[in-house]
Amino acid sequence: MLAALAVAATGCGSEARDEVEPPDVLVAFPNLTVPPGGRFVSRGGGHDATELTIHSPGSLEGVSNYFREYLSQPGWRLISDTKDSAGTVQLYGESPTRPMWIRLRTIDGGVESILIGAVPGYDTTFARKQADTRDTTNTLRPR
After folding, report:
1. How much is the pTM?
2. Count of Cβ atoms closer than 10 Å to residue 118 Cβ
3. 3-state DSSP of the chain
4. Model confidence pLDDT, tens digit, residues 70-87
5. pLDDT tens, 23-63?
């Protein structure tokens, strides 16, 4: 997807841009397992995050429960679990060192899972949030 974007941008007369190489999958998802029968579809991302697309057989409810259990295991905390009017399930979880977003939808007789894993130190919003929780200098002091 990123290569197609780079080609399209070049073809439109804009300046050629360097392709962005997302972080290594094992860095962004160090302990990730996929649902039974899941197969890799694509990889993308940016400087601070890796995006994986996986297609799995089964029902949306079954695959959603698989990832809910994953984000509820020790070392993770399931923060958000929503389903929109189109039936897309969106999960968000955090570990002490990284966030993960998962979007699930029914497609082609199975479930498409899009996983986005940010890499500590690269995702400035998450890194700042984590630093703020450790920073004790943000206290009010009398003048």
Report:
1. 0.70
2. 24
3. CHHHHHHHHHHCCCCCCCCCCCCCHHHHCCCCCCCCCCEEEEEEECCCEEEEEEEEECCHHHHHHHHHHHCCCCCCEEEEEEECCCCCEEEEEECCCCEEEEEEEEECCEEEEEEEEECCCCCHHHHHHHHHHHCCCCCCCCC
4. 999 999 999 999 999 999
5. 888 888 888 889 999 999 999 988 788 999 999 999 999 99
